[in-house]
Amino acid sequence: MSSHIGSPTRRAALAVLEAVITRRRPLEEALDALPKGIAPRDKAAAHRIAAAVLRRAGSLDAVLEPFLRREPPSEVRNALRMGAAELLLLGTPAHAAVASSVTLVPKPFAGLANAVLRRVAEAGPAALEGLDAERLDTPPWLWSAWHAAYGPAVRALAAAHRTEAPLDLSLAPGATPPEGGTELPGGSWRYPAGTHVTALAGFAEGGFWVQDAAATLPARVLAVRPGEKVLDLCAAPGGKTAQLVAAGGQVVAVEREPKRAARLRENLARLRMAAEVVEADATSWDAGGALFDAVLLDAPCTATGTIRRHPDVPYLKRHRDIAPMAELQRKLLVAAARRLAPGGRLVFASCSLQPEEGEAHLAADLPGLRPFPVRPEEVPGLAHMIVAGGALRTRPDYWPEQGGMDGFFIARWRRA
Ligand SMILES: C[S@@+](CC[C@H](N)C(=O)[O-])C[C@H]1O[C@@H](n2cnc3c(N)ncnc32)[C@H](O)[C@@H]1O
Fold it and tell me: Which residue positions are annotated as catalytic (predicted)?
């Protein structure tokens, strides 16, 4: 990061950190709430600084720790984290990083900020060496839960959250991928982290949509055939709806949030795809007796499988959020099962790494349904991700050499 970054950028980054860390507001909302006049380039730079702090706050605090005698106000702590992130992670020249962070803090703390950040600058990136970064940068409740679920792999999993995820695209039938991508097993195209999808040739023409490679799996294993009646529950923004339509399904897409339903319609319009969009709560939606050959339930969840893309997730979620979410998923699963025609398939997916929102659902009591395990030949190159019960478990530390994947749990049933 260069020294041209002005104070509006850093003020914006601090406002974003205060919103996410101190007030537990989503990162996207905090970025949207920035003053309208901020230049896109400054906003992008602010986003980059804030994301670096969110990913590495535990490590940055460990570096700052020896230089702080008492806990500073949150605004000062976040300005110090920003200064340390610029010095140790983002390569900002020392004078710029120190001076700008000092101007961000209230006057009485300027001396402290200056002294602390000079010490951090002297130590340089070596200050991060020898720290247990994976553990420091993971909230203890998530570390314990992942350790219980995945054993020693928790370390690789946590390490995967340090880097921003690449951009994956799914292609519309017959479309050519934009330049600069690599094809992944399963047919997604991967572009370097930071690629702006709207800037890619073919975006406006609807040649592709953004979708992590792991997020394509639920619709892939639902294996819709042309002409089938398909129900997509919890559908917005519509990545999976687009896959189901592309496969030739006659899709009804149900979404509860009006704003998100509008986005789903916009996305389908850009892709020149047709689906019936229903704005309703899927637990109580009256389908008028309609039954479907295939039902996809991409349930709302704590989203702990998407931390690479959403570094605010660990700040927003708590252990106590899991049980109510799992309960809602169970209700949605029962509602989804009721919509299946005889012989029909049901796929459940969640982008959570928490077993309560995944593996535990295999034990769900779904009258008339039996498990329909995923077979290795259905997921070439990914067969090692098939777990007990024939479900799929993907994790951010999988495919390390290709840049990882989101964490998903995917299970399938069939009506007798
Ligand atoms: C994981 S996201 C879905 C992502 C989407 N399937 C895709 O591939 O782009 C979950 C969605 O479910 C919606 N939702 C949550 N509870 C719902 C409910 N009871 N009924 C219908 N939609 C719901 C949320 O608003 C959110 O848009």
Answer: 351 (nucleophile)
